[in-house]
Amino acid sequence: MNDRTTTPAPEDLLAAIWKDILGADEVGPDDDFFSLGGDSLLALQVIGAAQEQGLALSLLDLFRNPTPRGACQALAAAGPAAEGRAADLLGPLDRARVPDDAEDAFPCARLQLGLIYESLVSDGAFYLDVISRTVNRPLDPEALRAALDRLSRRHPALRTRFDLGTFSEPMQLVLRDAPIPLTTDDHQGLDEATATARYEATMADLGRPYDPERAPLLRVHAARLGPDAFRLSYSFHHAILDGWSEAVFFNELVRCYAASLAGEHLDLPEPVPYAEFVRLERESAADPASARHFVGLKELLPAQRTAGVEAPDHHKVSAAVPADDARRLDALAAASGLPVKSLLLAAACAAVGAAWETATPVVGLLLNGRPERTGADVTLGLFLNQLPVRLDLTGATWRTAGRLALDAENDLLPHRRFPHSEVRRLLGHNPFEVTFNYVRFHPRDALLASGLLAVEEDMRDHTSLPVRIEALNETAGSGLTLHVTADVTRCGTDLPADLLTRLLAAVHALATSPDGPAAVR
User: Fold this and answer.
1) In b/e form, how buried is each residue of 482-496, taking b as 16+ CB within 10 angstroms?
2) pLDDT tens-digit profile of 195-244?
3) What is the pLDDT of residue 309?
4) What is the rounded CA–CA span in Å between residue 427 and residue 362?
5) Least confident of 15-29, 176-190, 345-359
6) How many CB atoms lie within 10 A of CB 509?
7) Burial category of 456 from C-beta neighbours within 10 Å (exposed 0-12, middle 13-18, buried 19 and up)
8) What span, in angstroms and rounded, lies between the C-alpha atoms of 357 and 355?
9) What does each C-alpha distance from 416 to 269, 273, 285, 370 come to in angstroms?
10) What does the DSSP assignment read for 61-86?
């Protein structure tokens, strides 16, 4: 009698992984990853789980072949992947300069350097984020302190400072110990005016500029609102956390805190060292194929307006996408095998094209360069890059424009870690004035669904980008919202509202008439 267990076929393994991570009822060999609700961050979880099963799946394989059958065919064609890990990124002289209070040291990522520079020249105003949310649990300062200490031990980014002059190049140092500052207050029984004044004073205090050479680059405040809720506010330097990292930090903090109140211990997956991303970025920056890719686009990417001498003045406008349009957008994405992100990128390009009077708009697409390894999705750090996307919308329908947007992102995937600063150097100019970012923070959705978190939040961030379009998709919260932030000194006072109006019109036209012309007035 043969008792050997039959090993599942790769297609079946991938289908089971997708079913688990995407929460699908069933997944067949030809079911589309994007139609099932997949995105780039969920793709990292899929890739990590596949690697644990011996399947060397890459992000590029998955995005270009978004079905279990197609992904397996790509695996067979590619063969086994080479394993890479972060080697020692310091030479012997730099290693000798590492102070005794640091447990690790490695060079800065390119965007970290850019954000630190912009922060310093703005006297700390840029790239400092202040966030406040309400947690639906009683406030226990000792339990909150313990939760913060656990996360500080777990995540080196929370103990990181930068050294801009001691070494042969700017470095980030991970200190052995750097307790996160925590202050508390009690707002119970305060009248509205007093409570508001105390809250604004707290937000102003949290918004004090950071010295990037002193750790930690994060501070926290908790204010009791009642017996069963408190407001958790905090700030951080953007050079240590991107948006997804902030969502992971907050999710883990609240869940660890709630578990502690319940007398339980929360098990958390092991993150990937951030130094691995720095290694991958350096490898990409030296890749001649990536350099050739962007040099080849030089004639298609005209120079944009440069900043004037006046101080920037950023204005932000926001609007919710009507629920019917959001539902139609989801249905169109599922039926077309296109990510919602690609459809919204197409809408953003059409709106920018109308505002800038061009049929070939160029926008900077925000991409994440996290390593394709298990645990990369829970690593805290700055993994972002912004690279140019040019869509030719001449004669295109909305459905076609969505496909063009997906193809454009797929074309960038092999170069997603090639630094934006290198692109600018190669082209000799800045190739875009508008950036686009699609955000769906699954960790925040999980907190909202659990009831641990109230929907309302106050997010205050300041960047040097001239025009920023953000699409925030919260399935358990405020739904799909659109946000335009623009420097009105550079772009004019009418641009934020005008661009938002065109963006809403583009989303409506795309959702209601997907086979109509991809154009707005």
Assistant:
1) bbbbbbebbbeeebb
2) 999 999 999 999 999 999 999 999 999 999 999 999 999 999 999 999 99
3) 61
4) 14
5) 15-29
6) 19
7) exposed
8) 6
9) 25, 19, 10, 10
10) HHHHS-SHHHHHHHHHHH-SPPP---
Omega of the bond prior to 8 within 30 degrees of 0, cis? no
What CA–CA distance (Å, rounded) separates 108 from 161?
10
- Please tell me the predicted confidence (pLDDT) of residue 3: 47
Q: Which amino acid is at 493?
A: T
- Chain CA centroid to CA 86, Å: 22
Residue count (the chain)? 521
Cβ–Cβ under 8 Å, residues 504 and 356: no
Is residue 385 classed as helix, strand or coil in its secondary structure? strand
Distance CA 501, CA 156 (A): 42
The sheet that has 128-135: what strands, in order across it? 182-186, 218-226, 229-237, 128-135, 453-460
pTM: 0.87
Q: Which residues contact 91 (CB under 8 A, 6 or more apart)?
A: 168
Amino acid in position 203 = M
**Percent of the chain whose predicted confidence (pLDDT) is above 90:** 70
Contact 396, 361 (CB under 8 A): no
